[in-house]
Amino acid sequence: MKDKDTLLALVEGEIARLPLDKTEPSGLYAPIRYILEDGGKRIRPLLCLMGADLYGNHPERALAAAVAVEVFHNFTLLHDDIMDKAELRRGRPTVHLKWGESGAILSGDAMLILAYQILQGGTAAHGTELLPELLAVFNRAAMEVCQGQQYDMEFEVCQTPVTREAYIEMIRLKTSVLLAAALEMGAVVGGASREERAALYEFGVNLGLAFQIQDDLLDTYGDEQTFGKTIGGDIAVGKKTFLHITAMERATAAQQQAILAPGETDEKVTRVRGIYDALGVRTAAEEAITACFEQALTALRRAHTDCQRLTVLETYAYSLMKRNK
């Protein structure tokens, strides 16, 4: 199997070849270039190529699927930032701050269409016969991501407590299913069986859960320069993260009031983080991350009988759990 750096070079090369430089109107395409050229971790396209390489030895055949997933993912980030009124993405001003909300919405819409064009245009590599199957996996994930985002927005305005179970389902939809779909699309191109695809998908779902809870943890306890986003941003806006929900379940009435009380940003972040520390919330999050990751590895080992072929994917999964951004 090809190593991560080789696969990443394939992804970056394919993204660089997207026809965005020569296309007018520039106001539509400049924001797309801005968000795609910023890089990010390219987790989803890498997983897609690794899924293909696991079964087929020709990961480049899955490049169209990989880049389509990456373009779709960045489209969701662009629109999420508008909904969240976020000011930073990967350490840079968000698209809607630079081009305005209307321009950002339209560029996001164009990215969604572009993702489908890329997937359709890849039939020469992955084969026309695979397109319906790839679209079925992609469409299911795309709709579930929208469902997850809707739940996320509803959680922010609901007056009743959000349970951990409801939160896990929300992040499964909003985050995990796209990682899982990227892996499964790669496996489709690689020629995996239904059973192998299902195991790889389960690996992706649990890896995604671990990844998102880790993201919640980093938002509160990470380093701002490394993380690329304002630390404590979730606390400042009262976002119902894994940490917030766990704290509210464990807190006394007085602590709950203190968590929910308004305040100047720095003061509120310090106050709430202190309550989290007192309630052992950080440890609870770390334990949840570990549990999800172990379930992911168990599923991965069912995805292929050759343990050696799993090494690249397993090593990459471990590296994601050691991230600080």
From TrEMBL:
Single Gene Ontology MF annotation: metal ion binding
Source species, domain of life: Bacteria
InterPro entries in alphabetical order: Isoprenoid_synthase_dom_sf, Polyprenyl_synt, Polyprenyl_synt_CS
Pfam families: polyprenyl_synt
Tagged with keyword Magnesium: yes
UniProtKB keywords: Magnesium, Metal-binding, Transferase
PANTHER family: GERANYLGERANYL PYROPHOSPHATE SYNTHASE, SHORT CHAIN ISOPRENYL DIPHOSPHATE SYNTHASE
Protein name, as recorded: Polyprenyl synthetase family protein
